[in-house]
Design goal:
The structure is a single chain. This protein is 21% helix and 29% strand. It is an alpha+beta fold. A hairpin with a 2-residue loop joins β7 and β8.
């Protein structure tokens, strides 16, 4: 039995998980400005179940400390990011529903924008009080591994003074904020991985989300880029 299999979700999980009526606006946002934010885009019942799952992982110390860099360059830097993560592995019905929603979104993005998205990877992200993630890009130019980033938020009734907002900055002016997104359950953010700088502000309360990336089947120097 795997660690995540210890979590037993309710049987009445909703479907579909994603508000598909908002997908055209999402695609338009990516084309016009490189990012999109939609509220109430993820089903509330699914958010609740995923929230219960990440709380279970945190209580049982199953989450891993997040680092920066990939492969041999991966290392922990608490001064840069302070979240803990667990990669989605389809061990629960709630995870499967979320990943099926992302598979639908991948098909729509490929059909509309001819992006050649090949796969999707995602992990739970748990920020304890005081944690943050400094401004960064999700993919370096020329690597073309992560193409579109997604964040699905899980915290219900997030207070206005809770902190933990994700800030999106202008690519040509790092001091100019374009959006400040509270981590409220059901909110879904989507942006271009190579060109949209963003950060997570210090949170006052435990903060839960699912971070994900649509990827091309890219390689660099003859080596296939690792999935994680």
């Amino acid at each position: 039995m795997t660690a995540t299999a210890l979590f037993t979700p309710p049987r009445d999980l909703p479907s579909p998980a994603l508000n598909r009526k908002m997908v055209p606006a999402l695609i338009e946002g990516l084309v016009k400005q490189g990012w999109f934010v939609g509220t109430d885009m993820i089903d509330a019942g699914l958010c609740q179940t995923l929230m219960q799952e990440i709380q279970h992982l945190a209580r049982h110390d199953i989450l891993d400390e997040a680092g920066i860099g990939r492969g041999k360059q991966h290392h922990l830097r608490k001064d840069i990011r302070g979240d803990a993560i667990h990669w989605l592995d389809r061990e629960s019905e709630a995870q499967r529903l979320y990943l099926e929603a992302m598979a639908y979104l991948q098909r729509e993005l490929n059909q509309a924008l001819y992006l050649g998205l090949f796969e999707y990877e995602a992990h739970f992200a748990h920020y304890p009080p005081g944690a943050f993630y400094q401004r960064h890009l999700d993919s370096f130019r020329g690597r073309a591994n992560r193409v579109i980033s997604t964040v699905g938020y899980l915290n219900p009734d997030w207070p206005s003074d809770g902190g933990g907002e994700m800030v999106i900055y202008a690519a040509d002016d790092p001091a100019r904020e374009l959006a400040r997104i509270p981590p409220s359950a059901g909110t879904f953010a989507c942006f271009l991985s190579e060109t949209v700088p963003h950060e997570v502000l210090p949170t006052r309360l435990p903060r839960a989300s699912i971070a994900g990336w649509f990827r091309r089947n890219a390689s660099l120097g003859g080596l296939v880029d690792p999935a994680r």
